[in-house]
């Protein structure tokens, strides 16, 4: 790719998505494109395959060559023969890559035969089965007959990799292939990509915003910002000494196992600009602590320096200055303005050790009818006999793979779904025993922040109406009072009060999540459930939201249940952590103790799967083998035994009970890791 620019035709005119981008990939090399959302990573990757042609885009300048063939200039028919055979793509969302009305096997076989007419249908089918087996899918003959919706996320991602490899491409482009996956499945996919690269001698262009993944898998890293490349270097060089302030900011924003929980996370101030609002000069200068007058006027060129490249006027200053401190580390980041409209009087003086929520033997089963050979009713055992408490003022983290029951437990906790059995107590009152009106009254004390900042707000409502709705539902507040309260809430979460009359589509993902947070705290609740609230965000925006939640928790005396699969973030925010597996709580411990001395083999495996953002500590991926079993048919005895390296005969027949092995440390395992 040499000096490539890509333009898109929009309602606001022609916008340039990437500008003067040059990069190369050697045979057998893995190159990672990193940067925040909106930096141009995906557009650059789609330009390589000319997929932008389908999105009102065009390559307005430059050339893209694969084995000497200029992809930017060849006709569509010749381009189709290259896709799949010479280059293939693995998309972030596998459900969007497969046609839901055709089986997995039909689609892989079609891809094989399209590029190799000499293969018969039977030969193509045999190769498809072998590919599914090679990418680690169990019972590949069965999976060939299944439809995309019948496979789990991890299995579907593997099937998409199999389809991409069906014609042995020389270049595999993987666009955020692990973003929506659990840490264990992520480790499996990364391990698979490494093995396949060596086996097929492929080159890989991996797009990611997770620098831990880049450190584990990349030979070279390319950093993009606002449509331009700002730095290129080998992985070891880039992590050891970044040459651009943006790269340094991204690295400092990473939450690691060693992040000091007593200090705020580092964040890059501001947000990435939109394509229609790109600044003059260096595009990073509005967020850069090193910006000078030159940066405001002149665009820096990508200069070579000892085999690596950086586009910055102040690289020498950066290298000689040592680590810089973010201006956001000052205590003035959030200021609460007390208002009689929405802030009640002083919180009660009850002891912090008291339980705000208490769950007693809570079970949630979903009936799915009778089986074909039995008259006994079957059920999905989403949550099974769970007991624990959440103390006032603490943040309780809840981790586990998809399908473990975390989100279901959260909904049962808020009584959005009634438990099948057991009881949920809020401040000593059983929610199931309350009348409808009384339960509605209690609900204003417990709120929720959702994972998807795009799907959790009504796009037709203005921001003021979205945040102000709780006042209409739970209180009699006038128009003026409501506006004043909402504007205070906007300021409180770091947004401009003028956002009141704007619509959600005018905001970035991080800003929309702030809108969701403002809505959640509108009635000054006692408890907030954050369900994967930062999972979909870039590393820098994620740090901003985590800091905001912690500040609000301290200032407003909030209690949190923080559900997540980003284990480093959960460790950082949580006082105690619970680990769920297939509807059961398998371990509870104080945060530091959980990560330093995990007692359950599942917890240990989860922690071992975390990518380490240090290339010098690069290691083999410690992936848990297999996938989580179906909650409709869980294994007998210990539910983790089918994947546990330490399982014994006792594990198959006797379910382990949750018992205390140290002060505040509970584990459900017959032979804990000690």
Q: What do you see in this structure?
A:
The chain has 674 residues and is of the alpha/beta class. The protein has three domains: 26-48 and 83-237, Rossmann fold (3-Layer(aba) Sandwich); 243-257 and 264-333, no CATH class; 355-599, P-loop containing nucleotide triphosphate hydrolases (Rossmann fold), CATH 3.40.50.300. It is built from 23 helices and 25 strands. An eight-stranded mixed beta sheet has the order 7-8-9-3-10-11-13-12, sandwiched between helices. An eight-stranded mixed beta sheet has the order 19-20-21-16-22-23-25-24, with helices on both faces. A hairpin with a 2-residue loop joins strand 1 and strand 2. Helix 5 packs across helix 7 and helix 17 (479-492) packs across helix 18. The longest helix is centred in the first third of the chain and has 18 residues, at 183-200. The protein is globular, with a radius of gyration of 26 Å. The model is unreliable at 324-352 (pLDDT under 50). It is found in: Cell membrane. Keywords: ATP-binding, Cell membrane, Membrane, Nucleotide-binding, Transport. Residues 1-251, 357-607 form the ABC transporter domain. GO terms for molecular function: ATP binding; ATP hydrolysis activity.
